[in-house]
Prior knowledge:
By secondary structure, the protein is an all-alpha fold. The protein has helices at residues 2-33, 36-70, 73-108, 114-140, 145-168, 174-196, 208-242, 245-258, 263-282, 285-312, 314-322, 329-340, 343-355, 359-384, 386-412, 416-444. The protein is globular and about 60 Å long.
Amino acid sequence: MPNYWIKNGIINIAQQLFTVFFGFLSLYILVRVLSPEEYGTWVLFLATISVLEIARNGLTQEALVKYLTSSMPSDQKKINTATFVINMSMTILITILLLAIGSWLGQSWKSAEINSMFHLYLVALIFSSVLNQVNCIEQAHLSFTGNFLSNTARQLIFLSFVIYCWITKTPTKLQTLVAIQVFSVGIAMLIALLCSYKRINYSLRFDKIWGKKIFNFGKFTFGVTLSSMLAGTIDQMMLGSMLSKTASGIFNIAVRISNVVDIPSSAMATILYPQSSKMAATKGETDIKYLYEKSVGIILAIQIPIVLCLLFFSGIVIHFLGGEKYEESISLLRITLLGCLFSPYGRQGGTILNSTGKSKLNFYMLLILTAVIVISNLILIKEFGIFGAAYSSLVSSFVGFLVCRYFLKKNFNINTKNSVYYAVQFYPELVKKYLTKKSSSSKNI
């Protein structure tokens, strides 16, 4: 067990760090090769694609991991086939949806090119569907290496292209950036297949029983994922329609820097889900309670120093990444950082609810949060402009914390104060268990 947490924790944190590092490099270059209006269009394109793709993945990925970790080998082929069919069906529906609403979104955001960007990306939807399924199969086998390599390659290819354009001063069109995205997803899919082909096994027949079981579980995780993605991107979309594409780009820079704080939470959620799924099947609520409180405490202990550093150096960070064109992002960053301190409670809470079969409850919880975000954005953006989106983010983070706290207390008797205790104890325990032990070993030698 310790090896599982240490090895996979390192791999997932490394992946999150690479994601943020490559993302920051891309951001640094894109704001210099694109105009603020073009960058705002790129932000809105990515936000839309992310919502659709991740929501689609949410229909099957957690069900796939959950059932593969606890099923008999004879059922694994049926599970994989049922998941693949559902994934491809959703990909077809998303393709139809993009073809139907692309023009309308372009008019809403006053962007003539975004519809053609959606059309170009349709090929990547197929690649990403296969990529996500293969990564989930690997995760269900408690391995994350292929996931790490495929996602790193995907980001590195895109980054290499924008660096080339920046150094050679090659004019960059948004459609060209989309084409590179399609190519990078295809390469990532091939890498994932090469890393996990021994674990991939399918049945030639679609099993209706497993298909129904996966869909019934996934329909709520689909809603959870869709609500979660909307909660994270709806503010940028609303800024694009209520103010301008440039406002979306300015706010996006603050959000992307704030996402650094969520690296420990995202990494922990990835390795927590398969482990808590097993625990739900073999152990009781006491173990789940401890797992949640301890994981949130560790995340808080890591997050708080990061938040303090970013608050203190926010001006330097924004000027370095965006330059003088994005001066407003400094104050926006300081507001959004405060909301990050509430995110571990909701992120890990959602993971625990899904892994213990309470995805329906998690769905309703996120519906409440999404409603709060939409309503608060409508009110606060009208009142405060671009800063209204930041105030809305802070308000909704706190409301999400309160809602999650209520449901977790009711279902698992979880006490959020214990997480604070574990956070305070994290660094003394680290020194005592590892540094002091290492010092003693050196003396014995």
